[in-house]
Amino acid sequence: MRMAVLILGVLAGLQSGAAVSDPVAQLQGRIKNGAATLDFDQRRGYLDSLLRNLKVPISSQTLVFSKTSLQTDRISPATPRAIYFNDDVYVAWAPGASLIEIMAVHPQRGSIFYMLEQRQEQRPGFVVSTGHECSVCHFARESPSKFVPKLLFDSVIPDAAGNVEGTFPVPVTDQSPFEERWGGWYVTGTHGKQRHLGNVVLKRPASVMGGVAGVDFTRSTNVTDLKSRFDASRYLSPHSDIVALMVLAHQIEVHNLIALAGGKPAARPEEAGEPLVRAMLFSGAAPLTDSVRGTSNFAVDFAGLGPRDSRGRSLRDFDLKTRLFRYPMSYLIYSRAFDGLPGAVKTYVYRRFREILNGADKSGKFTHLSPADRSAISEILRETKRDLKL
What we know:
The protein is α+β, with helices and mostly antiparallel strands and 390 residues long. The chain has helices spanning 23-32, 47-54, 132-138, 205-209, 242-261, 269-280, 298-303, 336-339, 343-357, 371-384, and strands spanning 62-64, 81-85, 89-93, 99-106, 110-117, 127-128, 139-143, 146-149, 154-158, 164-171, 185-186, 189-190, 293-294. It folds into two domains: 23-242, no CATH class; 265-384, no CATH class. Strand 2 (81-85) and strand 3 (89-93) form a beta hairpin.
């Protein structure tokens, strides 16, 4: 089974009996000792309460309607699957589904896939899944004998039932051409003359053979209201915000590279470190040719998380005119996952950041960073990431 959305990696190499301290495990501990509760709602089960407890914003909601998940029978253009995320956790919910799926990013152990049954209990519990149903899609081969967790965010061409058709899927990353992004997803927001595959449902089998060339884009671009496409009242939000989708693609790419870095031999830190450096500095990112604007509060909520330097600048500040962020250095440099990188890899990554930001790197892979960009990023990091000496 090929899953078009992420979600959800599996713990790679979890040792039996080893302590786990990701946000979901911490929440489970608080529930067990009575410090936290999960409230059950007849409409969405534990979803509302779970997001509050994990500090996952509702404005992060994105909606995928292709049948690219474990719970395919619950997903269609009429009943899309909702994805919510913060820096450390991904949550997936579908109307009427028996499970909520959660993926937590662990600083040392990679990605852990949890399931929460939608059954009312006094003290509900999360179940760690290490089963075949997840590993089929969410393990990447690191070596002949080793696999690491892999998040998926693909663009597909779905039919009217949500089944995947055509020559896709293709991964969605910062480097993806705008016109190939988000097939099988709902997308709300404005983006000028730029086209994308979001909101597209194939009506005729003949259009499958034409791939992207056979798609009618007249109802798919600059969509700001989804109420005519499905019953949005069943969801926490009527939005599938385009800015949230762009951030999600970046975050998944970086989280995957961090997971891969954990499995690389210490003697070759550059093999894991260099791809991570490029992703975190947005090397090769496809430029925007028109301004992008979302429909929810996501951009404001996200930018408000900081941290900010003494001049009020943050790596979470958006540009959305020619590129995603105003200062092209990933905000995930502040994450627990990044801080948990193996020592040799982190040392390599920090050295490369210094070389690039001070202009010593002449490789040409970072020419998108102007002298003003490099200076601003360096100044922000000096005040907000003290262990990185610039």
